[in-house]
Design goal:
The structure is a single chain. It is built from 8 helices and 32 strands. By secondary structure, the chain is mainly β. Among the domains are: about 25-175 and about 345-360 and about 385-415, Phage tail proteins - horseshoe like beta roll fold; about 280-335; about 440-515, no CATH class; about 525-585. The strands form 6 sheets. An 8-stranded antiparallel beta barrel has the order 1-5-6-7-4-3-20-21. Strands 22, 23, 24, 25, 26 and 27 form a 6-stranded antiparallel sheet that branches. A 5-stranded antiparallel sheet has the order 28-29-30-31-32, with no helix packed on it. A hairpin with a 2-residue loop joins strand 28 (about 530-540) and strand 29.
């Protein structure tokens, strides 16, 4: 492959509508506008874009010269883009080519994309960087049919121009994934692995993923919000101050505790660059604080921020009886706080480099043959890591321009955003946190007594306080929930009993009994009685009934104790107090 520059690589005519000589005399005279003039720098470039579109296992190879337009946005966590390419179909008019892709392209089968990106020439470097391959999933698409001569209806279709929106596999598939699943005593790593399928490659080096959790609830019903599994994963990584990066070369997503050096370092030539911008992020002006509202040990623990403004705080509110949870959360929020955010460097290119940069690449800014001034901020920092790349272009000719060629000629723009190599800040896409709580039915578990007895059992849950065990039949999972009075005052002890249907409320890692869903057997009375009734005890032959009802519109109060055939009754009615103690032979086991 030749690395010699094509002619006129420095400037290209642009649409200057809306500009005036007075506003931009230099650009107006040359018919060019650089990035400082309010837009992206556009320049002619020769690129090699090898495209393979695979549909239902059938690959279709598109030559680089037939890729007519591209708009790629690549970040440290993935990429998306719009591609347009032609496929000639002139066999019916005597030509040699046939379009075999159309029927599959317009069908519903999964579209996979492989896009090789490389420079086809060099301004300065002795060699070209080998092509970097982007893997993705196709989404919205369109087909434009082109006749040989539009004014002649007899001429058949001779070419089609295809347009396809593409994203990296994780965004493309998990962005449409809305599961609702409950896990007990699992790790988040096992949850991610269960949902990755065969198109998403994951690698881990992140301790929070290996922590066994009593509850993990993924509640992503789209009726309750638009948070997808992709959002859920990004939220978890962000919450735990992790790093998620997409390794383009291996098509693998890495979830780590810290950043790791990948490709490079690659040299940056000042001759390729139109403008470099030193960007300074906002500094946090608040003091983080951890609050625990537990009444027996209320806690307020601030986290030092020397840049904080007076009285400005950012509070994290907890409610837990476990001191370790407060300590753990404070440690997490301390690591999340970056009191002096690092600046970044944005580069607007005026020619496409021989070694184009991609996300997570390392890059060096040096003087000497690379032509950077020794006093520039970029040279003083020297070592950078790429976090964001925007690459756009469209063919400078017609549909058949460069047809079948090993490279294409484009009007191109190329922008690279870099952070300092030492920058520890985690960079993730915007995400939507799942809506909580989510409500699901469960049944109370008790191991006390026989299966038909309405017993209750507070299970030990060290270091937590005592807990209910609740079976959630939908996912056949047994989980824990706080053993608390719920909405009753503490002097009333009415625990939920075995097999009672309850409505459980879930966040991603906690659950609690929200309400009760069924009446106990024997509790209801005829409507005419307008009764209020309490049943205490394990089962019908070992029970105490406290009943207030109406007979002939007159209130009656009855307390009845039953143990096998031993019956005691206190009954208060209009003008009567009836107390009875007896043995009922009909209540004996086996009696008729």
């Amino acid at each position: 492959m030749s690395t010699k520059n094509p002619d006129d690589t420095d400037r290209v005519d642009l649409n200057i509508k809306g500009r005036t000589l007075e506003e931009s005399p230099e650009q107006y005279e040359t018919k060019t506008f650089n990035a400082a003039g309010g837009g992206q720098r556009v320049f002619p470039a020769r690129l090699t874009l090898g495209l393979t579109v695979t549909i239902d296992g059938s690959p279709f190879v598109i030559k680089p010269g037939d890729v007519k337009s591209f708009d790629l946005h690549m970040t440290s966590w993935g990429w998306d883009g719009q591609l347009e390419f032609i496929v000639v179909d002139d066999k019916t008019v005597g030509g040699p080519e046939q379009d075999k892709m159309r029927e599959k392209f317009i069908g519903p089968k999964l579209i996979e994309v492989s896009l090789d990106v490389a420079s086809a020439y060099s301004n300065n470097a002795p060699t070209l960087r080998p092509a970097v391959t982007l893997k993705g999933i196709g989404h919205e698409r369109s087909v434009q049919e082109i006749q040989q001569q539009n004014e002649l209806a007899d001429n058949g279709i001779s070419m089609r121009r295809y347009s396809l929106r593409v994203t990296d596999p994780m965004r493309g598939l998990w962005g449409q994934h809305f599961p609702s699943v409950l896990y007990a005593d699992k790790t988040m790593k096992s949850v991610f692995d269960e949902h990755k399928g065969d198109k998403i490659n994951l690698a881990y080096d992140f301790p929070p993923l290996d922590e066994t959790r009593p509850i993990i609830f993924v509640g992503l019903d789209p009726a309750n919000g638009v948070s997808s599994f992709y959002d859920y994963v990004m939220w978890f990584v962000d919450r735990n101050n992790g790093v998620l990066t997409y390794d383009i070369a291996s098509n693998t997503y890495n979830i780590r505790a810290a950043k790791k050096d990948v490709g490079g370092p690659y040299d940056l030539y000042w001759q390729d660059i139109e403008r470099s911008t030193h960007k300074l992020p906002a500094v946090p002006r608040y003091t983080p604080q951890i609050l625990n509202s537990y009444t027996e040990r209320p806690v307020t623990q601030p986290i030092t921020n020397p840049q904080s403004a007076t009285t400005m705080v950012r509070s994290t509110l907890l409610r837990t009886a476990v001191d370790q949870e407060v300590t753990k959360r404070k440690a997490l929020e301390t690591t999340r706080l970056i009191t002096e955010p690092q600046p970044t460097l944005e580069l607007q290119f005026k020619s496409f480099p021989a070694a184009p940069l991609f996300p997570n690449d390392l890059a060096q800014v040096q003087t000497g043959k690379f032509a950077w001034h020794q006093k520039s901020w970029a040279v003083q920092q020297k070592d950078f890591r790429v976090i964001d790349v925007k690459l756009q272009g469209h063919t400078i000719g017609g549909e058949r321009f460069d047809h079948g060629g090993d490279a294409g000629r484009y009007s191109t723009s190329y922008q690279v955003h870099m952070e300092l190599k030492a920058d520890k800040k985690s960079r993730l896409p915007e995400f939507i946190e799942q809506q909580t709580p989510t409500y699901v039915e469960g049944k109370i578990v008790s191991e006390v007594g026989a299966d038909d007895e309405k017993t209750h059992e507070p299970f030990p849950a060290d270091p937590q306080p005592r807990a209910y065990h609740v079976l959630v039949p939908l996912w056949n999972q047994k989980i824990i929930a706080p053993y608390e009075p719920l909405k009753l005052p503490g002097q009333l002890h009415f625990p939920a009993y075995k097999h009672q249907r309850v409505l459980m409320a879930f966040t991603w890692r906690r659950s609690w009994v929200d309400s009760f869903l069924d009446w106990r057997e024997g509790i209801e009375r005829p409507t005419d009685a307008q009764a209020n009734h309490m049943l205490l005890g394990k089962k019908p032959d070992s029970i105490t009934s406290i009943l207030h009802d109406y007979e002939s519109n007159i209130p009656v109060f009855t307390i009845a104790r039953t143990h096998m055939n031993d019956l005691q009754t206190v009954r208060i009615s209009e003008g009567n107090l009836h107390i009875e103690v007896k043995e009922d032979p009909n209540a004996l086991p086996g009696s008729k």
